[in-house]
Amino acid sequence: MNPKAFNAVLKDTITLDDRVWDFQLPNLPSHSVLDKNNLVKTIVFTTNADKRRQEIRLRLEPLGTNRAVTGEPPSRFLVVSALEFRPLHVPASVRGGGATSSGKEVKGTHPATARECTEYLIRLLRAGVRVQGTHYNFYGHSNSQLKSRTCFLFAASRDEIAAKVAALGDFTGMKTAAKMAKRIGLLFSSSRTVLTIDPARYLARRTRVVFRNTRYTPSVFQIRYRGYKGVVTVDPRMKPPGPVLRLRKSMKKFSGGNDYSFAVVEHSKPFVFGYLNDEVVILLQFLGIEQSVFLRKQQEHFEFLSAAQVDPRSAFRFLSYLNRPDLAEKVLMTSLEDVRPVWSHSLGCYSAYATPGMS
CA 271 to CA 76: how far, in whole Å? Predict the structure, then answer.
């Protein structure tokens, strides 16, 4: 069986009484198979309102690259995803909980509110998860993973994980837990690690930057280096034997750490679809762009997203913007309906993410 197709139910019912998450799966691929195929065990919480069911499933998904997982085999990690974990609103008569004399529903056995769902996840992350006898404890998450309710667990004790994080940077000076989590999250940002800091052309070779079958040198890189994060641009005036990288003090988010890897998160590309975030909108308004211009752009964007659901040409453009040429090609070669189940969810998530604070 193809290990990428593995999909099993760990718990077919989620209850408020759950305190231990210990699972044994006789047909789960071995650690050597996971490491060979770069697959990570992923626990997914799902809610099916029609069937009035909340489940915990286990899938195998490709392990993305970031500084926090570099150097460790994929089998030592466990990803928890609760993006689809929502309250289960079931009538009291169905839940067996009964009703009060006033007719109000009483508390049932399933997480029926957002708070109960959150508390359930907190208990799981504090207790950890055991799969095939291996205990996984909370490790961390990137800022984008936090928004999608996803995090990493690691097969080690809490003390060992704390020491591992401490080796990646000095976070002791952070005054709040939220700031510390945000800074540690930089280590989990998806990136390609480059071994040494060399000129931009070397980065282009290491990251295999290609456009229309031709390798080119981007002018801008989004980077992570030790405690630094930000965007750097190629400056032809900086030539050896002088410095090849200059970083601003404001780019430094934390100090220390034994990881000297230079990681590229993203780079400039031809014809890439972009969007306006809050910072860019404020800057453009300060430069004299009227609000009506942004509102018109927003309305045009909404119309484009609506058209992408029914018009093949708009769907092709949208999928190209998302860097999904495989799906865009299927739209042309087969039909829009053949790819709709795959990308309709991405369309909804993108429209919510790409237009923050614009209404």
Answer: 39
Q: How would you label 62-86 residue by residue, b for 16+ Cβ within 10 Å and e otherwise?
A: ebeebbbbeeebbbbbbbbbbeebb
User: Residue holding tokens 């679809």?
Assistant: 273
Q: Please tell me the pTM assigned to this model.
A: 0.63
266 close to 190: Cβ distance less than 8 angstroms: no
Number of alpha helices (DSSP H) and beta strands (DSSP E) in the chain: 12, 14
Rounded CA separation 152/185 (Å): 11
pLDDT digits (tens, 9 = 90+) for 72-128: 999 999 999 999 898 877 555 544 444 433 444 434 588 889 999 999 999 999 999
User: Taking the domains of the chain in order of start, what are their residue ranges?
Assistant: 3-91+107-181, 192-267, 278-352
Per residue in 274-319, pLDDT (tens digit) is: 778 888 899 999 999 999 999 999 899 889 888 888 888 888 888 8
Residue 188: how many other CB atoms lie within 10 Å: 23
Report whether 58 contacts 23 (CB < 8 A).
yes
What is the rounded (10 degree) CA torsion for 88, 93, 94, 96? Answer: 90
Q: How far apart are the first and last CA of the chain?
A: 48
